[in-house]
């Protein structure tokens, strides 16, 4: 839902996306934070309500932009979730950051280098993979890729959930022992360090922070021994009831 709302806004004028993303350079997500309230997970599949997504620009840097997407109930305006995103303008040829056109800086001057913003994503160091981390190997499909010919940012979350469920069902995690899709995610903080493509061999490592906070789970994805992705997630401790029961 967040991705669909973001794409619709970007292609309809938000941050002049179509003028700064083209054949020479592309805006790619390098970091994001996703917050969801528990109440959202209580809504049944048959519950109908109007959804509203608000996008606001937070910060403009030399080669990056940060903006927030709020997911609200269209009638009550209650906020169900928030997605804070940092995108960097990358050269399609060199895969290195490139600056924006001068007119872009002039138009969005009030947002430049606003590092004091409380909504700006933090610059935290990524943790090392512990020796007791659970390892799960995976090969991305072509269906996991996007128009930039690399694995789409949302696919990595799916990979992490697959790895987490394998770890949970195998008894590796403390407290969790069912399909991780039954435990509502409340917070994801994600860093995209590199990229991968279809048919690459990825190694996914997952572990819990400490015995006192089993709901806090970490993920690192490596390609040829090199870190390309890291995520920190917080899940609800109580599993939801299964909505569908197989007949077989």
Taken from the alpha-carbon principal axes, the silhouette is: globular
Provide the residue-averaged pLDDT: 90
Structural class: alpha+beta
Percentage of β-strand residues: 25-35%
Please compute the radius of gyration using only Cα atoms. Answer: 19 Å
Distance between the termini: 32 Å
Total helix count? 5
Share in helix: 10-25%
Order of helices and strands: HHEHEEEHEHEEEE
Number of strands: 9
The major pleated sheet works out as: 9 strands, antiparallel
Q: Which consecutive residue ranges, at least 5 long each, have pLDDT under 50?
A: none
Widest β-sheet, arrangement of strands = 2-3-4-1-6-9-8-7-5
Characterize the structure shown:
It is a single chain. By secondary structure, this protein is α+β, with helices and mostly antiparallel strands. The protein contains 5 helices and 9 strands. A hairpin with a 7-residue loop joins strand 7 (202-208) and strand 8. The chain is globular and about 55 Å long.
What descriptors fit this protein?
248 residues, alpha+beta, 9-stranded antiparallel sheet, 5 helices
Spell out the blueprint of helices and strands:
Elements: H1 2-10, H2 17-20, E1 25-36, H3 38-41, E2 51-60, E3 64-73, E4 79-91, H4 102-107, E5 134-138, H5 153-169, E6 185-192, E7 202-208, E8 216-223, E9 226-235
Antiparallel strand pairs: 1-4, 1-6, 2-3, 3-4, 5-7, 6-9, 7-8, 8-9
Entry summary:
This protein is an alpha+beta fold and 248 residues long. The chain is built from 5 helices and 9 strands.
């Amino acid at each position: 839902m967040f991705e669909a709302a973001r794409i619709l806004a970007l292609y309809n004028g938000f941050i002049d996306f179509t003028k700064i993303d083209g054949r020479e350079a592309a805006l790619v997500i390098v970091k994001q934070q996703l917050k969801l309230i528990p109440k959202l997970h209580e809504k049944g599949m048959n519950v109908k309500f109007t959804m509203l997504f608000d996008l606001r620009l937070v910060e403009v840097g030399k080669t990056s932009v940060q903006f927030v997407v709020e997911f609200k109930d269209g009638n009550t305006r209650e906020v169900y979730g928030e997605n804070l995103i940092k995108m960097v303008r990358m050269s399609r040829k060199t895969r290195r950051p490139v600056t924006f056109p001068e007119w872009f800086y002039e138009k969005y001057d009030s947002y430049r280098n606003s590092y004091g913003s409380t909504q700006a994503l933090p610059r935290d160091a990524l943790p090392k993979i512990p020796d007791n981390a659970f390892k799960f190997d995976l090969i991305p499909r072509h269906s996991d890729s996007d128009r930039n010919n690399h694995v789409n940012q949302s696919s990595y979350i799916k990979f992490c959930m697959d790895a987490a469920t394998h770890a949970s069902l195998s008894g590796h995690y403390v407290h969790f022992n069912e399909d991780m899709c039954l435990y509502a995610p409340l917070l994801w903080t994600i860093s995209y360090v590199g990229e991968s493509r279809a048919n690459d061999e990825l190694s996914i490592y997952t572990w819990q922070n400490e015995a006192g906070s089993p709901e806090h789970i970490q993920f690192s994805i490596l390609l040829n021994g090199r870190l390309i992705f890291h995520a920190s997630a917080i899940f609800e401790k109580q599993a939801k009831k299964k909505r569908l029961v197989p007949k077989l």
